[in-house]
Amino acid sequence: MKIGFRIFRAIIFLVPALFVFIAGMGLSGLTITFGITLVTAALATIFYIFIYLDKNLNEKIFMEGLTDLFFGIVLFSYPDPDKQFFIVIFSSWLFIMSLLTLSGGIAKKQNKKYLWIYLLSGIFYLIISFVIINYVPDAFSSINYTMAVVLIVYSILTFYLILSRKEDIY
Length: 170
Fold this sequence. Notes:
Elements: H1 3-12, H2 15-23, H3 27-51, H4 59-77, H5 83-107, H6 115-133, H7 143-165
Helix pairs in contact: 1-7, 2-3, 2-7, 3-4, 4-5, 5-6, 6-7
């Protein structure tokens, strides 16, 4: 896979986090920007798949795009979303990304050199997804910052893997 797509994906997942820190956006605003980010990432994945349909594509790219599309559509089509609903959506998305990261690091021999970063990032995403889903309602004022930090870490680790490996992260 071309790394330009991966860099674009990492950048668009930085956007909601930057809005939280720069504009002081709350959880309702984060819900909308994260939903737009998911749909944009899914559309970029679909565009990439159509361009390189005749090439041998990694199945994890399909799973990543389908995950983004599913959670983006669910986020926008749910009739009565609230804070807890978004927390479940975000945690579920992060859980699936942790599984893709862990399987991407463990399953391929080409990734053995970077196994430590795959394991640490996958376990970090897994733990944080459970932390976020079990957030105490009294502390909801800080959950948007927690999610923003997770998105920043996700983007930075993706950038690191792309630039150090000079190819797709999976």
